[in-house]
């Protein structure tokens, strides 16, 4: 028979054998190792909060608040806000390491890269909140638990303390003899399991808060996994696209070309008045039409102009084929990954198609640029505006194509125009 062992403290507390397991001792160890960390943070919070306490105390007593105290409060508050995201770094690291004592389950860590992320990321400020909670709330709970444990110890030790020259007080009763203290000692012994459970409950509550504030929320983990899955699907699609393009180009297209040539040669050898001349001419025309269709299919998989001209050249070719006047401004200082390049091409192609079909525009402009992290495509026209994805203008499919590479699409199209489509595709240096 397989024994199901609890994986963390909160689960162990619900089991019958909790008191005879190692979990109470692990909870006690977790609380004991918390004391130095929480103690240091408590001192820091006291230093930061001292000016605030002075201001509140003066206001409560109706006394005017002195200017030096207000200045000290402002300066200390600004320094605390500036240093809090940095001070929380070692605190969070220690707490994540200590968490394995009472909760060994894996913890998904947030991605905080660079100094700027320490000040603008929600995960960094959750670490600050945990440090404040650890230094402000946890010590109060520990003092209450310590007082209960001290009271229980007093109850158990009362028979040995009673009977001396001095009278002792147990709870609210004065005890003079050992006999009077024995019932309190028995009650203290029965109170030991409750203390053990309180230790476990306090440690479990602390681990739950630590996992909540120091880890990545479940929703973000799921979203990150969806993003990774979408990226894997996009990579798989790109690989399959290359295979199909290679097979069509290297296998089907040469054989179809050869068939077209054979039909053309056979057509030359057959007299015009022969009964086979007309069917042969039809077959030759169908073969040529199939060649055109095959080229269009290959072009739809990955435009040949991208391979030959690059993104800027392929976009200029699209602009030259558009029914309206289109100017292209391209400032691409570094190579663009093939997958991003393909998406960017179809963004421009679809946008110019929408302009020709829906915008009633006379001119348009395409701008290609690169920031530190993104390839930015902007397509602007002077049409009537009012573009709405709900009307089936191709914007929904365009947004899906952009999302497949973890990009984003922004649309500005007020009634009367102009319409601006801005697409940002990840393209880090």
Automatic annotation (TrEMBL):
Pfam families in alphabetical order: HATPase_c, HisKA_3, Sensor
Enzyme Commission code: 2.7.13.3
Start and end residues of each Histidine kinase/HSP90-like ATPase domain: 345-427
Gene Ontology annotations for the cellular component aspect, listed alphabetically: membrane
Source species, domain of life: Bacteria
Cross-referenced InterPro entries: HATPase_C_sf (IPR036890), HATPase_dom (IPR003594), Put_sensor_dom (IPR025828), Sensor_HK_TwoCompSys (IPR050482), Sig_transdc_His_kin_sub3_dim/P (IPR011712)
GO MF, one example: phosphorelay sensor kinase activity
Keywords: ATP-binding, Kinase, Membrane, Nucleotide-binding, Phosphoprotein, Transferase, Transmembrane, Transmembrane helix, Two-component regulatory system
Residue ranges of every copy of the Signal transduction histidine kinase subgroup 3 dimerisation and phosphoacceptor domain listed in the record: 240-306
Residue stretches making up the Putative sensor domain: 69-214
Reaction catalysed by this enzyme: ATP + protein L-histidine = ADP + protein N-phospho-L-histidine
TM helices/strands, residue ranges: 28-55, 67-89, 128-151, 181-204
Listed name of the protein: histidine kinase
């Amino acid at each position: 028979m397989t024994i199901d062992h609890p994986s963390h403290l909160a689960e162990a507390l619900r089991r019958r054998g909790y008191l005879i397991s190692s979990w109470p001792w692990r909870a006690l160890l977790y609380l004991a190792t918390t004391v130095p960390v929480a103690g240091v943070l408590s001192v820091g919070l006291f230093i930061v909060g001292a000016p605030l306490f002075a201001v509140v105390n003066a206001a409560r007593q109706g006394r005017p608040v002195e200017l030096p105290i207000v200045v000290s409060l402002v300066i200390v508050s600004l320094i605390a806000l500036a240093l809090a995201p940095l001070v929380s770094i070692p605190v969070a690291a220690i707490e994540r390491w200590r968490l394995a004592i009472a909760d060994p389950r894996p913890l998904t860590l947030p991605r905080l890269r660079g100094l700027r992320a320490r000040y603008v990321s929600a995960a960094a400020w959750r670490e600050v909140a945990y440090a404040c909670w650890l230094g402000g709330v946890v010590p109060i709970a520990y003092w209450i638990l310590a007082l209960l444990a001290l009271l229980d110890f007093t109850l158990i030790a009362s028979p040995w303390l009673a009977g001396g020259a001095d009278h002792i007080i147990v709870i609210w009763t004065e005890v003079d003899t050992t006999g009077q203290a024995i019932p309190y000692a028995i009650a203290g012994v029965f109170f030991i399991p409750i203390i053990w459970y309180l230790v476990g409950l306090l440690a479990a509550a602390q681990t739950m808060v630590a996992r909540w504030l120091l880890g990545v929320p479940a929703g973000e983990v799921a979203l990150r996994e969806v993003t990774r899955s979408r990226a894997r699907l996009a990579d798989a699609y790109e690989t399959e696209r290359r295979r199909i393009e290679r097979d069509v180009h290297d296998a089907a297209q040469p054989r179809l070309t050869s068939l077209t040539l054979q039909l053309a040669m056979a057509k030359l050898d057959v007299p015009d008045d022969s009964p086979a001349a007309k069917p042969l001419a039809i077959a030759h025309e169908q073969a040529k039409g199939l060649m055109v269709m095959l080229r269009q299919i290959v072009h739809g998989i990955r435009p040949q102009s991208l391979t030959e001209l690059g993104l800027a050249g392929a976009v200029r070719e699209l602009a030259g084929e558009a029914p309206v006047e289109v100017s292209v401004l391209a400032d691409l200082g570094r190579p663009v990954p093939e997958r991003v390049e393909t998406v960017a091409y179809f963004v421009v192609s679809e946008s110019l198609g929408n302009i020709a079909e829906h915008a009633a525009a006379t001119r348009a402009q395409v701008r290609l640029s690169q920031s530190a992290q993104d390839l930015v495509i902007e397509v602007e026209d002077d049409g009537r505006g009012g573009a709405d994805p709900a009307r089936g203008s191709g914007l929904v499919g365009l947004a899906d194509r952009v999302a497949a590479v973890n990009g984003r699409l922004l649309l500005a199209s007020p009634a009367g125009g102009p319409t601006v489509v801005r697409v940002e595709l990840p393209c880090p240096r």
